[in-house]
């Protein structure tokens, strides 16, 4: 099989460690899931017609940005000592994100409609991959809550 | 006497989801994953996207056999004539990360009906068709359409004669697809605008066919799975 | 020992103003198959990532179009973009994919795109 890149075999264990079957619930996101009001309910209550929440497109843009405005990929073919784990985990390929979204939604967020489920799955993926942690996210959410509700 | 104008209804509360979206984005920016400026530019670009250009491309093709030929041979070049530049109108100037630059226009005939799906994720021709609908992204649609196309199409209200070839286009690589449906009867003498009006997003995906008088997509209720997918 | 310099912007430089997959045009050499050829999808081992659906493995198909040249997804995912190959649009009969597909709909097909290395002559 001359066509297969031999470096694939070296990285086998590393990729297997990212197996999503070992994912755990994120309590912050479980809270949002239980207490958050989905757009469908808000629309009904306020008599609004718009099928999507205003943040749907900003969320899509965030997903595109994470997929790499400049096509940067995980350069796992670099020798181990030259890799910068922080830099490498920076980006979230679109196909990987979608696959994880399907898995996570199926496991934790199945009763939540779209696009709230895409948002929860994204936050969950980013926490799992160590891009930020739950406490940071919780603190930031509190701050934004204060900011938006203070007027 | 001044007229009283009733203000348009607005959602007057901030949901936890809205807060979460902002938090994720702000943290990502602070960690240097992308810049606020890039995100802003991308969002502005995305707000311009919708299904009208694709509908106009179909209408033009119906009216002009030469343009139809171009659309089928070179979808990217044909897109330019409806104002869509797959390469340069994107903020990157080389296409978007998930949409690439290879539009293929699938021509239906009375004996051939195309319908598009992406079984691997949910690739969609956003630059010319806008954001994908939720049902298109669900494993329900993606898994079932390639295996049971006629049953799934029947759920969308579309049934086709046995001798028609139903061709499922599985959009698994760099091409993106729109369907060029057969022009329906009862549209003789129509203008490009009138024709474009009946080419809905669902017609362009292939789960519906254009009909005079039908200018909107049908609502798609979500039902729980009969055989839910388990890990 | 000097560290090899990794150019993380090589795709930007290559594709700006040209598009992807257009930027790989002319790099794949002679295509092995032409329109109308009958081929079979090889069942190569799945090492991590590829975009060759399991349901196509081992199935016969007809080449409908030579669509573009590009690195195969399984190479591009690891940023190995030096090897560019021809991509084909292939039409499969549903009856060849699913044995119990109803005879009444014998004309039904699936069309999808695959890179050359996944195909062998039938």
Short description:
The complex is a heterotrimer of chains A (151), B (231) and C (122). Chain B is an alpha/beta fold.
Could you please describe the fold and organization of this structure?
- The complex is a heterotrimer of chains A (151), B (231) and C (122).
- Chain A is an all-alpha fold.
- Chain A has nine helices and no strands.
- The longest helix of chain A is centred in the C-terminal third of the chain and has 16 residues, at 134-149.
- Chain A starts with 6 loop residues before the first helix and ends with a helix.
- Chain B is an alpha/beta fold and 231 residues long.
- In chain B, 39% of the residues lie in helices and 10% in strands.
- In chain B, the strands form two sheets. A two-stranded parallel sheet of chain B has the order 1-4.
- In chain B, helix 3 packs across helix 4 (65-73), helix 3 (52-63) crosses helix 10 (192-198) and helix 8 packs across helix 9.
- Chain C has three helices and five strands; from the N terminus they run αββαβαββ.
- At the A-B interface, helix 3, helix 4, helix 5, helix 7 and helix 8 of A face helix 1 and helix 2 of B.
């Amino acid at each position: 099989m001359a066509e297969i890149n031999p470096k694939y075999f070296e990285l086998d264990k590393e990729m297997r460690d990212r197996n999503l079957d070992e994912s755990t619930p994120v309590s912050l996101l479980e809270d949002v899931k239980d207490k958050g009001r989905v757009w469908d309910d808000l629309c009904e209550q306020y008599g609004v017609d718009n099928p999507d929440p205003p943040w749907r497109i900003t969320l899509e843009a965030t997903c595109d940005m994470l997929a790499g405005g400049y096509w940067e990929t995980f350069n796992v073919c670099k020798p181990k000592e030259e890799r910068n784990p922080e830099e490498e985990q920076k980006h979230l390929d679109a196909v990987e994100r979608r696959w994880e979204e399907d898995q996570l939604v199926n496991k934790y967020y199945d009763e939540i409609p779209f696009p709230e489920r895409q948002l929860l799955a994204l936050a969950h993926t980013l926490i799992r991959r160590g891009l930020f942690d739950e406490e940071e996210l919780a603190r930031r959410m509190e701050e934004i809550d204060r900011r938006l509700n203070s007027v | 006497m001044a007229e009283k104008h009733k203000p348009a209804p607005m959602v007057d509360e901030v949901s936890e989801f809205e807060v979460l979206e902002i938090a994720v984005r702000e943290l990502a920016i602070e960690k240097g994953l992308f810049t606020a400026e890039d995100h802003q530019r991308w969002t502005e670009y995305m707000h311009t996207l919708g299904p009208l250009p694709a509908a106009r491309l179909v209408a033009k093709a119906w009216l002009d056999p030469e343009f139809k030929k171009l659309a089928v041979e070179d979808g990217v070049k044909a897109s330019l004539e409806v104002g869509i530049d797959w390469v340069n109108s994107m903020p990157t100037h080389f296409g978007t990360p998930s949409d690439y630059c290879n539009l293929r226009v699938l021509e239906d005939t009375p004996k051939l009906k195309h319908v598009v799906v992406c079984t691997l994720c949910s690739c969609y021709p956003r630059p010319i068709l806008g954001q994908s609908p939720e049902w298109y992204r669900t494993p329900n649609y993606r898994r079932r359409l390639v295996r049971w196309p006629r049953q799934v199409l029947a759920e969308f209200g579309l049934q086709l004669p046995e001798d028609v070839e139903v061709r499922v286009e599985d959009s698994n690589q760099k091409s993106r697809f729109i369907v060029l449906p057969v022009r329906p009867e009862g549209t003789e003498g129509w203008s490009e605008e009138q024709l474009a009006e009946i080419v809905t997003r669902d017609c362009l995906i292939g789960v519906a066919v254009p009909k005079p008088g039908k200018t909107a997509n049908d609502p798609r209720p979500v039902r729980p799975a009969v055989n839910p997918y388990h890990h | 020992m000097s560290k090899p310099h990794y150019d993380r912007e090589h795709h930007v430089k290559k594709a700006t103003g040209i598009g992807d997959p257009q930027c790989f045009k002319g790099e794949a050499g002679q295509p092995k198959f032409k329109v109308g050829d009958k081929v079979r999808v090889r069942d190569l081992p799945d090492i991590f990532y590829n975009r060759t659906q399991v349901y196509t493995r081992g199935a016969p198909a007809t080449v409908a179009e030579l669509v573009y040249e590009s690195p195969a997804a399984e190479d591009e995912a690891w940023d190995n973009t030096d090897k560019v190959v021809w991509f084909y649009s292939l039409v499969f009969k549903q009856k060849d994919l699913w044995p119990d597909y109803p005879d009444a709909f014998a004309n039904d097909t699936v069309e999808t795109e695959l890179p050359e290395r996944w195909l062998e002559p039938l």
